[in-house]
Write a structure and sequence with these properties.
With 667 residues, this protein is an alpha+beta fold. It has 2 domains: 404 residues, Methylamine Dehydrogenase, Chain H (7 Propeller), CATH 2.130.10; 148 residues, Tetratricopeptide repeat domain (Serine Threonine Protein Phosphatase 5, Tetratricopeptide repeat, Alpha Horseshoe), CATH 1.25.40.10. Strands 10-11-12-13-17 form a 5-stranded antiparallel β-sheet. Strands 1-29-28-27 form a 4-stranded antiparallel β-sheet. Strand 6 and strand 7 form a beta hairpin.
Length: 667
């Protein structure tokens, strides 16, 4: 058989462009040209679409990108022609509360949900109502629809329910309707809220749900039995009292006690959470975490999560791993050693020495230069920029232990949220690549101590002394051992918790009690594979994060400072930062087949962004110092929420804002 010709799509951007002109490739390969580093560097404002009278809370493209839908606090949905920048339809929805989500089910059918607790679907052209569901007794925050099934729709509400709607059947809001897919109240407790939901585009039976905590739940809907809705009759017939009465007396009757009929078996759901949060002994941390958005990659193998009061995280759907402290091979080794197991002779026949490790990879001149620059930045105290440089070096040479170890040191000194745990992950990676790397072992013990894990730190330091006896008497080791000893003694002297009177739980504990299944799933939650830092997500609970491009090489998210951040997902670094709103950017949705990005936020404006011509003009909305903006946002997320809200108002020009315009409710 003769030699096969290299596929056109594998020849890079230039070859792909030439192949496209010859007609050698189809649309799926053409889309690889839409979002590249070059086009992102030229991204700028194309057009502002005016027509709404309040905050624009959601955006949605139809299947081929010929129509853009936007919905607002003004209770209207506007359908736009994105190429002529004109309104096609301005639809009064009939909602009585802020609209939070809009979805295209077919080119002619749209669905919406709102703060009034209702889900509606209607025909665009005929105006006929196809669904009016008032089963939720709280704000409905997000809708999800399967790309290959226009009849099914899922809604996530702050009453803790995820409902499944089938437009092929008539719907009545009563106790005979079996449309409850997930009841978070039964597992999370009385105060559970569903915040967002998304369908896997490749495996539509997989449904990701985000709640008012830091866990993301991935359900296999094929294994779940739909439950009936619990409804009741309050003494007062007003709508507000009915919703409150149902939630407190009916919906929460089994709060924290699990599903009565085992509707959701354990094998039907997988949990994901950042490792440093899932291992917290007290999960009710401040500030309160909430998942504001979940999105699948185009191939359905990755899950992108925007976590309120935290960062943007990426999870592997198919091969998620436990947090590194649970998987610690070093700690497992020490447990065996402490239990009296004899040391096994080394394979090379020596006593007390390790086998020769694999030679480290040879760094290119470019990577060496990046590493040296990063080291200089660390010496100057510019840890944030140093981390960015190490990120770039690791992206080009992912098998070099010293790069991970050096980045771990920079992360520990920078001290942003989650940095210490990320440093521990880097230390483990460095040790796996080079078990003889002394600094990685010591930095691991130090990072564990900074994470307030003295027992694990003690284990790792003991391993360090055993493996590297020449360094065991150093002053740094002496100081770390002293800190660990003091911390361990403090843990031993702490009094045991006093049980409640009569042995029963207090009211607060009962309200936050979780089911056995919930505790098991949380304990087995899979860790993140990548995190993206720079934005701020504390003020609104509808803030999105989305992949850019079919290969998911870039990620974008809005921020409380009015900026739109774009990251390279390979390195984790910010590659573009643009001012997208005078106050807060909440929504970002990319066109299905071209690089046309729609954004919205607190302003009553929809903005379209695209790569601008290379004519020498500068983009006026570029944030000149994205690193400084990222550092300020990290500080903002650690501040008091009330102070942050006042800061947002001041940035938005609150004194000059129309006091009668509809207000966007914060988290």
């Amino acid at each position: 058989m003769g030699r096969r010709e290299e596929p056109a799509w594998a020849k890079g951007t230039v070859g792909l462009a030439a192949a496209r002109e010859r007609g050698d490739i189809d649309r799926q390969f053409q889309t690889r040209l839409t979002v590249t580093r070059s086009t992102i560097d030229r991204l700028g404002l194309e057009k502002e679409l005016h027509g709404h009278m309040g905050c624009v809370n959601c955006l949605e493209w139809n299947y081929d990108g010929s129509v853009l839908a936007s919905a607002s606090d003004d209770l209207h949905v506007i359908l736009w022609d994105p190429y002529r920048y004109k309104q096609l339809h301005n639809i009064p929805t009939g909602h009585t509360g802020n609209i939070f989500s809009v979805k295209f089910l077919t080119p002619d059918i749209i669905a919406t949900c709102a703060a009034d607790g209702t889900v509606r679907a209607r025909s665009v052209c005929g105006g006929a109502s196809l669904l009016e569901c008032a089963c939720h007794c709280g704000r409905v925050k997000r809708l999800a629809a399967a790309p290959d099934n226009p009849h099914l729709l899922w809604s996530a509400g702050e009453d803790g329910l995820v409902l499944q709607h089938d437009l092929r059947t008539s719907h009545r809001c009563n106790s005979d309707t079996a449309n409850v897919l997930v009841n978070l109240l039964n597992h999370m407790g009385r105060y559970a809220e569903a915040k967002c939901v998304a369908v896997n585009p490749r495996r539509p039976y997989q449904l990701a749900v985000g709640a008012n905590d830091f866990y993301v739940r991935l359900y296999d809907t094929r294994m779940i039995k739909l439950a009936k809705l619990q409804v009741g009759s309050p003494s007062n017939n007003s709508a507000t009292n009915r919703l409150m009465w149902e939630r407190q007396n009916i919906r929460c009757s089994r709060a924290g006690h699990g599903d009565p009929d085992n509707n959701i078996p354990r094998g039907a759901v997988t949990y994901f959470a950042p490792g440093h949060l899932s291992m917290e002994p007290n999960e009710h941390t401040f500030p309160k975490k909430a998942t504001t958005y979940v999105a699948f990659s185009h191939d359905g193998n990755e899950l992108l999560v925007n976590l309120g009061s935290e960062q943007v995280y990426l999870f592997d759907v198919n091969a998620g791993r436990r947090p590194v402290l649970v998987e610690s091979f070093i700690i497992q080794h020490n447990h065996s050693y402490r239990e009296g197991e004899e040391k096994q002779p080394h394979k090379n026949g020596t006593n007390g020495t390790t086998a020769a490790p694999e030679p480290p990879p040879v760094l290119s001149e470019r990577v060496l230069h990046i590493k040296e620059m990063a080291n200089e930045l660390v010496n100057k105290g510019n840890y944030s920029t140093a981390v960015d440089f190490y990120n770039n070096a690791i992206a080009e040479c992912p098998d070099c232990a010293i790069l991970y170890s050096n980045r771990a040191a920079a992360l520990m000194r920078r001290g942003w949220a989650g940095d210490t745990y990320a440093a521990i992950k880097d230390c483990y990676k460095a040790i796996k690549l080079d078990p003889t790397h002394v600094k990685s072992h010591f930095r691991l013990a130090k990072a564990l101590m900074e994470l307030q894990r003295p027992r694990e730190a003690s284990e790792c330091l003991r391993y360090f002394k055993d493996k590297f006896p020449r360094h065991s008497t150093s002053h740094a080791v002496f100081l770390l051992q002293k800190d660990i000893t003091v911390a361990l003694e403090g843990m031993e002297t702490q009094p045991d918790e006093v049980p409640a009177v009569g042995g029963s739980m207090g009211e607060a504990e009962e309200n936050t009690a979780t089911s056995v299944l919930e505790r098991q799933l949380r304990a087995s939650a899979a860790d993140y594979t990548q995190r993206l830092l720079g934005h701020c997500n504390t003020t609104t609970d509808i803030k999105e994060a989305n992949f850019l491009g079919p290969d998911a090489n870039f990620v974008a998210a809005g921020s409380d400072d009015g900026s739109m951040f774009i990251w390279c997902r390979r390195s984790g670094n910010i590659v573009r930062c643009l001012k997208g709103d005078e106050s807060i950017v909440n929504c970002l949705q990319l066109h299905p087949s071209m690089f046309l990005l729609a954004t919205s936020g607190i302003e009553a404006v929809v903005r379209l962004w695209s790569p601008r011509p290379e004519d020498g003009r500068t983009e006026g909305r570029v944030v000149s110092d994205p690193g400084g903006a990222a550092a300020a946002n990290q500080q903002r997320m650690r501040s008091d929420p009330f102070e942050a809200m006042l800061l947002n108002i001041s940035f938005a020009g609150g004194a000059s804002r129309d006091l009668h315009s509809p207000a966007c409710r914060t988290t």
